UniProtKB/TrEMBL annotation:
SUPFAM superfamilies: MbtH-like (SSF160582). This is MbtH family protein. InterPro entries: MbtH-like_dom, MbtH-like_sf, MLP_fam. Transmembrane segments: none annotated. Residues 1-47 form the MbtH-like domain. It holds the Pfam family MbtH.
Length: 63
């Protein structure tokens, strides 16, 4: 069912979230190219989001 599909989205701080596939992505977020059922999307985020600190904090800390 379409209401069970989600897209993985990211913001400029390289933070990830999921968003229902049928809804417009909010300003400040972009598609990452991965979509699927909720758990598939959450599993994908677990695999790709290695450092949960916002990008600006990582850069400020030199990493």
């Amino acid at each position: 069912m379409p209401e069970d599909l989600y897209r993985v989205v990211a913001n400029d701080e390289e933070q990830y979230s999921i968003w229902p596939a049928g809804r417009t992505i909010p300003d400040g977020w972009r598609e990452t190219g991965f979509s699927g059922e909720k758990q598939e999307c959450l599993d994908h985020i677990d695999q790709v989001w290695m450092d949960m600190r916002p990008r600006s904090l990582r850069e400020a800390m030199g990493g």
